[in-house]
């Protein structure tokens, strides 16, 4: 299950999935938290996640290149029963190496040092404060979007606090402004596939601040006004 889906700006209610799985005790719950970990609360043990997997390139605000996983004892026991586990995601082999402080292949030591440093920065900020910062930026973005006559793409109650997906609705056309923002070095991504030209996404995660967001929104507003002339 994907906890936070970036192309639609949607957050899934993981606790509800776990409740459903109470009637299916052999089913394991693997959750992709790539764009939620370190941005919004993720309760690995409390939610009963069997595998929690994330990369460091989203809310951790590091270059892509390594992934981190938490694996439950139940998932580890099930993995040990599989004869052809492959190589890349062989939890048993990875756990044995981890116990010896050994990586299965040559590690990217630069990423590991960067991850340690970023975890120190997150600890200094405080996880609750970090979550509150992401939530405040999300709230500001939603208010700004609806003020233009646009709407959030996700259903009410499922909007992400790390990336907002905004749909056209009754608001002005935004595609020209997106292109001009990119020329200024401010990247706001448009929608994928069927949503291309109909939605755009503003990421407010990682080390972004409210000041960064206000600068982006101010430039967006100015370009929208110029396009309307």
Structure, explained:
The protein is built from seven helices and nine strands; from the N terminus they run ββαβββααααββαββα. It has helices at 14-21, 73-80, 91-99, 109-125, 127-147, 175-183, 210-228, and strands at residues 4-5, 10-11, 30-32, 51-55, 67-71, 151-152, 163-167, 189-190, 199-203. The radius of gyration is 20 Å and the shape is globular. The model has no long low-confidence stretch (mean pLDDT 95).
What is the gist of this entry?
With 229 residues, this protein is an alpha+beta fold. Helix content is 40%, strand content 14%. It has a 4-stranded antiparallel β-sheet, covered by helices on one side.
Query: Which oligomerization state do the chains in this entry correspond to?
Result: single chain
Structure summary, number of beta strands? 9
Fold-level CATH name of the largest domain: Aspartate Aminotransferase, domain 2
User: Approximately what portion of the residues adopt beta-strand conformation?
Assistant: 5-15%
What's the helix count?
Answer: 7
Kindly state the mean pLDDT as a whole number? 95
List keywords for this structure.
single chain; 229 residues; alpha+beta; Aspartate Aminotransferase, domain 2; Aspartate Aminotransferase, domain 1; 2 domains; 4-stranded antiparallel β-sheet; 3-stranded mixed β-sheet; 7 helices; 40% helix; 14% strand
Protein topology:
Layout: E1 4-5, E2 10-11, H1 14-21, E3 30-32, E4 51-55, E5 67-71, H2 73-80, H3 91-99, H4 109-125, H5 127-147, E6 151-152, E7 163-167, H6 175-183, E8 189-190, E9 199-203, H7 210-228
Parallel strand pairs: 3-4
Antiparallel strand pairs: 1-2, 4-5, 6-7, 7-9, 8-9
Helix pairs in contact: 4-5, 6-7
